[in-house]
Design brief:
about 55% helix, 8 helices, about 190 residues, mainly alpha
């Protein structure tokens, strides 16, 4: 799934129960942060014509941050940083695992590579998770999931008065919500 889809789904998870802005941000970040292991693509692109190119993306994407060890680290950080510890940590782990599930079912590359998830790392290198029916990153199911998540996000923004934009700017979020309410009317009390 795309990073945008992971962001929307994670924010929806964060919005499942009353959390303050900081805890919503932590839960949302937990569902997006596994893709930090994809930043190796920058080094790989920059060194592709070098004598010794770096293969950090090819080797480590869906490995370093797509496993139970990373999930435990994220859960620990959520516990330490959140105000509603049990709820925020639980939702952070749900968001992270939804990310992994999304990658298992819908992240096949254009070359047909299935992007297995070595879930048991760093405790074991056995048992990579794959699904033989994995659809391509640009396949219609990913567009449908993104569309549904976007519609749910807009609806919640209109109804509750906050959106993922709050993660960047409260003012911009207020303008976004105001625009939605101007276009669709105020929510019923």
């Amino acid at each position: 799934m795309s990073p945008i889809t992971h962001l929307l789904v994670s924010w929806l998870v964060a919005s499942a129960t009353p959390l303050d802005r900081r805890d919503r941000a932590l839960v949302t970040l937990a569902g997006v942060v596994p893709d930090v292991d994809g930043l190796g693509a920058v080094a790989e692109i920059l060194t592709r014509d070098a004598e010794r190119p770096l293969d950090w993306w090819s080797r480590y994407h869906h490995v370093l941050c797509h496993n139970v060890g990373f999930a435990l680290a994220v859960g620990f950080l959520a516990w330490i940083l959140s105000s509603r510890r049990a709820v925020a940590t639980s939702l952070a782990l749900v968001a992270l695992h939804l990310h992994l599930l999304g990658d298992i079912v819908g992240a096949r590359g254009p070359d047909g590579y299935q992007w297995p998830i070595p879930y048991l790392l760093p405790f074991s290198d056995r048992g990579e998770l794959t699904w033989s029916g994995q659809w391509a990153l640009n396949a219609w199911p990913n567009f449908v999931i993104t569309g549904v998540a976007l519609a749910a996000t807009f609806h919640l923004a209109w109804r509750r008065g906050r959106s993922p934009v709050e993660l960047i700017s409260r003012r911009a979020d207020g303008l976004f919500v105001e625009t939605l309410r101007h276009r669709f009317g105020p929510p019923a009390a």
